[in-house]
Hints:
The chain is an alpha/beta fold. The chain has a domain at about 170-250. The protein is about 30% helix and about 20% strand. It has 11 helices and 16 strands. It has helices spanning about 5-15, 50-55, 60-70, 80-85, 90-110, 155-170, 190-205, 205-215, 260-275, 295-305, 395-400; strands at about 115, 130, 140-145, 175-180, 220-225, 230-240, 250-255, 285-290, 310, 320, 330, 335, 340-345, 360, 380-385, 385-390. The longest helix is centred in the N-terminal third of the chain and has 19 residues, at about 90-110.
Amino acid sequence: MPVFWQKVVDWIGRQLSWLRPKAQMVVMPVFDAIERTEALPADHLISKFDYLNESGRQAAQQVRDQMGQMFARYPAEHADEMRRRLRSRDDTLHQSAFFELPLHELLIRQGFTIEEVEPVLANGRAPDFLVASPQGDRFYLEATLASGQPAATAGAERRMREALQAIDDVQSPGFFLSLHPRGTPDRPVAVARLRRDIQRFVDALDHATVIADLAAGRPWPTFEREEHGALFRIEAVPKGRLGGGNLRAIGVRMMAPMQVQPQDAIKSAVLGKAGRYGDPDLPFVIAVNSLEDYARADDAEDALFGSHAVGINAAGEDRWIRNPDGVWHTATGPGYSRVSAVLSTERVYPWSLGQRRARLIYNPWARRPLPDVPLGLDIVRIVDNVFQRQDGQPLGEILGLPEDWPTDD
């Protein structure tokens, strides 16, 4: 065939290509198709994904169903990578991937368009989403976690979980073990020996004798072991009846005293993303999921605008002020103006979607201000140097979940 006519045929073929059926992209489900009978809570060693994947609880099935529905609406060309991260036994990687799912679901339910997943910016790096609002306003959205846990402590936490699991595996039909740990081990604990010694301690106890001793004012039977910087102090608490109660040995675990400052973790998470993408050509929003147990809604405000303090003027009058130690409010003036807003929330896990709220906090000094976008969340902004807060819908309500979701039998 002459070259000219070959080009004509190729051109016609391209124009009619939309008539040909396209190959369907096969996306594997997130969870395995297995029989599930285990109804106990998670042990100390199982990963968050593995427990959710294997649990036979009714609530776990509801969570799997919700995650499956959100995953099915995630862009198919990126689903394999999302699935790999969701199935990770690294809890941080799993939680990071999961946080992106409800964010994506929130956007599409509110009429936003995900124009691109991981759009590559001028400096070669890619935030999570390029988003367009129903009004056509475009912005970048990057998700991150504020765990408050330095990477260096991850190994120590793993070693502590291994020790806790060894203690929990002790056979103790007559006693709950009340655990009072201190510190974390800087080397692996000899868990087999720890479990064996605690088992001997429990086996040597007589249920009736201990109850009589306690009634006479004598102290709890106590076991102590210090190893590699961690102290395990255990008190044996008699059960109401022999063999009663749960199947695990640890009945109570006391937490070590700590100073809680969730705003520091949020500040660190925002700063970690604020300078990563150069100077984006569109408004840039960072979504932060604070995982600390005691994080509250106003901790994000403290992280961004500075911690609270009392200011006293020359007349001796005092008033609340903010220290210049925030991401946006600094000692040298407004900082990180490339961040247009922060979408903050707390402890968003697969199990907690029904009980969470989130808020969009606008940067009053943003280089590229984020327009009013109808996310339906709470809104925080500064107008004439005054905080204005506007209530929106809870995250669970936007996602169509009742407040008591998920529910067990």
